[in-house]
């Protein structure tokens, strides 16, 4: 049988304490009292619990708590008494009170001031998470809704390219499953860390934001390499400029930051990419208005047996091998470029 200990005196170190100037600490005070009450063996006795907690309240609080109906009525439980006490201290709700209006205020504040660097992003993320976590935990908002609110603090230019980044980073994301706030923050962070101008953000990690030029037909096309992407993709404006045909029946889902699922436009089969003396025939997914002309994902590296060499200077070389002829070519990468093919007023144009 467990040894019981009497309730500690008010001035003892182990006694629960609460300064009424700090209402938010009242729930903690009740938890501390519950601990000593359990040690004293009175935690199952509602009357003793109500009487016992008074010894740790200052005289004014003691007199007020004694006036409460839940204290006076013997039939009222400890839980009912505690709930009534808490109702008189707005800042002491056991679960932090949060509303969608609180969330909207945070979003609106940062949308107006702007988020231009990692420090500002972290501050926004922290303040947003405080309310979002409570709203989601209590079923007020779903994960998709929270993600949608989160994105409202950022301009369209970020949101458009963030979708592309998330699509290539999480190709196996289950349809309809929301991105976590951490996934969104990390994706936005690298976009902010490598911006160029006000309108373009290239979906590529800063440690490897390099490009390769390839010939497709007789046209030079700038390609961004991303081994983390499970497909080879091309913008619809680029495919139009090159005159590529594609199969619109072969589409795959791409999930955006707010949980919305979009689809590729189709697949262009066996598109010849010439890298020096090597020609590689790639299956290319056509994407509407991404942040690149061509994105070379993991299939490109497999088919060309690509070997990547990085240098302290920041330079990066690709060594490609033709598995059919055993030809080898080494291609220095170049700084990535903005998309050369863009839409303007509903028409495709080359920059």
Question: What does this protein look like?
Answer:
With 351 residues, the chain is α+β, with helices and mostly antiparallel strands. The protein has three domains: 23-92; 100-201, no CATH class; 208-350, Cathepsin D, subunit A, domain 1 (Beta Barrel). It contains twelve helices and 16 strands. The strands form five sheets. A seven-stranded mixed sheet has the order 8-9-5-10-4-3-14. It has a three-stranded antiparallel sheet with strand order 11-12-13, with no helix packed on it. A two-stranded antiparallel ribbon has the order 1-2. The longest helix has 20 residues, at 118-137. The radius of gyration is 31 Å and the shape is elongated. The chain starts with 25 loop residues before the first helix and ends with a strand. The relative contact order is 0.09.
List the helices and strands and how they pair.
Elements: H1 26-40, H2 46-54, H3 59-67, H4 69-72, H5 78-87, H6 100-113, H7 118-137, H8 143-151, H9 156-169, H10 181-193, E1 195-196, E2 200-201, E3 210-216, E4 219-225, E5 232-235, H11 236-242, E6 253-255, E7 261-263, E8 266-275, E9 278-287, E10 294-296, H12 298-303, E11 307-310, E12 316-321, E13 328-332, E14 334-335, E15 341-344, E16 347-350
Parallel strand pairs: 4-10, 5-9
Antiparallel strand pairs: 1-2, 3-4, 3-14, 5-10, 6-7, 8-9, 11-12, 12-13, 15-16
List keywords for this structure.
about 350 residues, alpha+beta, Cathepsin D, subunit A, domain 1, three-stranded antiparallel β-sheet, 12 helices
